[in-house]
Each structure stands twice: as C-alpha cells, then as structure tokens.
Design a protein that fits this description.
This protein is of the alpha/beta class. The protein has 13 helices and 12 strands. Strands 4-3-5-12-6 form a 5-stranded mixed sheet. Helix 1 packs across helix 2, helix 1 packs across helix 3 and helix 1 crosses helix 4.
C-alpha cells in the first residue's frame, strides 16, 4: 500500500483546481509526469479513483469530490504551520516574498528594494509581479502591495498612499495631432484601450464617459505594453503620475478630465507580521510610499 503524504495531496489539489495535468504543471512548476505519478500514488494510498479523464482534461470522481474539502483543510493547516513558524523567527536575515502588480513591480519597487538591500544585505527578496491576487494565508507571498482595500478579515493591512492618475500622450503624438483644449476635443483623440479586459471602459464610465471596445483603435491587456504604446505615440492613456511625470517623452493632459487616485495597501498574514524580518521590509515599504511623490 502506498504511503500518503502531503506532496501527493498537494498535487491532487493542483490538478483538481486546474482541471488538467498540463494546467496544474504550469501553475505549480511540477512536471506533468510527476503530477501524474502523484495522482496514481494518492489513488493507491486512498484506495479510490480520484479522477476521470474526459476530452477537456480531468474531472473529479464522486470520491474525489468528497475528498476535496479535507484536502483543502490539510493545505490550510500546512500553511498555518508555516506561518506560525515564520512568525516565531527572531533573526532578520532570510527571504521575504513580495507580490505586486506588474506595473508597480517594474516601475516603482526596484529603487525601493535597491535601497533596502543596501541597508539590509542579509534580507533576500523574491519579487512576484502578478496582476492576480496571491493568497497570503496559504503562503503564496509574505507581503502584498494591492491597489484596492483587502476584504479578507484575517489579514493585516495598512493603507500607504493614494497614487494620482493622469492622462498622458507622447509629445510626438501631440505635436502631430494637436493639444486638446476641451473635453470634447479630448474625446476626438486616439485612446489606447484593452482587448479582453474592461477596467478602462469601467473607469471611463466612472467619470461619466461611456464608450465601447470599438472606441479604442489600439488595444492590449498587457499593462507594460500599454505604457509602451503610449510612449510610441499610438494614442492617449491613463498612467500613474509617478510613472508618467518621470518620462520626458510624455506630456500630461491636465484640467479636462479628473481621474480618481489609486489606493495602495500593504497586506500581510497576521503571523508573519510578528517576524522582525517581515517587520523591517514592511516598514521600508511604508516609509517609501509615505514620500510626497506617491500622494495625490
């Protein structure tokens, strides 16, 4: 009889939640053959069949469905154990895993982390650029910078700043098209939009401007490519003023539309907040975002 251990349960959860071996491999970094072997070992240990193969991938059997809640409880227990141990760590040396959006990770965090490395060379940083929400209670990251107020009651959160947004265009684009002097003239300009996402359309609706996807002649869902399209002169777009004002090739269009500022929240799991290493990085991030450069 196979021995059941956590690695097998972790693979079972990954495949159950991803729906296929290939998707689970991409999500976990574990190879498909290893995941497949783990599933067979888990089935042997539990003496039940966990999955049925279908054209789209793998679906849980009735037994697999019944085992999903206790498997998730086991994952939470493992995460709680790791968090509690991390919270007890007394030394400041070690690794801190930070997650933030791709834009913040690319344009804002590097100089902050460079200063921290000079001040605390014993602290190593894993930076995870991600526009999805990492689960801090499951140990996917130690600290998170989020552009919205967290809703999970079990997290420790601090609002760091309200970062202003502005409408920007390349100077070369404005030299060619002219500089708008009214809201009506502004709406005659080319705007860069999104392909499948709808955040920009919803943000424009929030300031009283109703448009559809076809309003935007150039579209992308990649936030870094979005910035590059503005810089290249493809049209106007909204940027954090901290980024747009620092680029001499861009010009801010003021006074025609007021965009709401983006809040910045620093978030951690409660146990990790007690770690001196986490506290040091927390304080460094909070201090950096207290700068007037990050204020609306």
């Amino acid at each position: 009889m196979e021995k059941l251990d956590w690695s097998l349960i972790r693979s079972f959860l990954a495949v159950a939640e991803a729906g296929s071996l290939s998707a689970a491999a991409r999500a976990t970094g574990i190879s498909q053959p290893t995941l497949g072997r783990h599933i067979h070992q888990a089935e042997a240990a539990l003496q039940v069949r966990l999955f049925t193969r279908v054209q789209q991938g793998l679906v849980l059997t009735e037994a697999g469905q019944a085992l999903l809640p206790p498997a998730r409880a086991m994952r939470q227990a493992v995460a709680d154990l790791a968090l509690a141990a991390a919270g007890r760590a007394k030394g400041i040396e070690g690794t801190v895993r930070i997650t933030a959006s791709r834009v913040v990770s690319s344009a804002i965090l590097p100089p902050i982390l460079a200063r921290l490395r000079v001040e605390e060379p014993g602290i190593e940083i894993d930076l995870v650029p991600s526009d999805t929400t990492e689960n801090l209670l499951l140990g996917e990251a130690d600290l998170a910078l989020r552009m919205y107020r967290p809703t999970q009651a079990d997290l420790v959160a601090q609002k760091l700043a309200e970062m202003p947004l502005g409408i920007y265009a390349a100077r070369t684009y404005l030299d060619r098209k002219g500089r708008p002097d009214s809201p009506e003239a502004l709406m005659q300009m080319d705007f860069i939009g999104q392909d499948r996402e709808t955040q920009i359309i919803r943000a424009m609706a929030g300031v009283g401007i109703t448009v559809s996807r076809s309003f935007f002649p150039v579209r992308t869902d990649d936030p870094l490519v979005y910035q590059d399209l503005i810089r290249a002169g493809c049209g106007l777009g909204g940027l954090l003023c901290h980024i747009g004002d620092a680029d001499p090739t861009l010009e801010r269009i003021d006074g025609l539309v007021t965009l709401p500022a983006l809040p910045v929240w620093l978030v951690a799991a409660p146990a990790l907040r007690q770690s001196p290493r986490l506290r040091r990085v927390w304080d460094a991030l909070a201090s950096a975002f207290a700068s007037p450069a990050f204020r609306a």
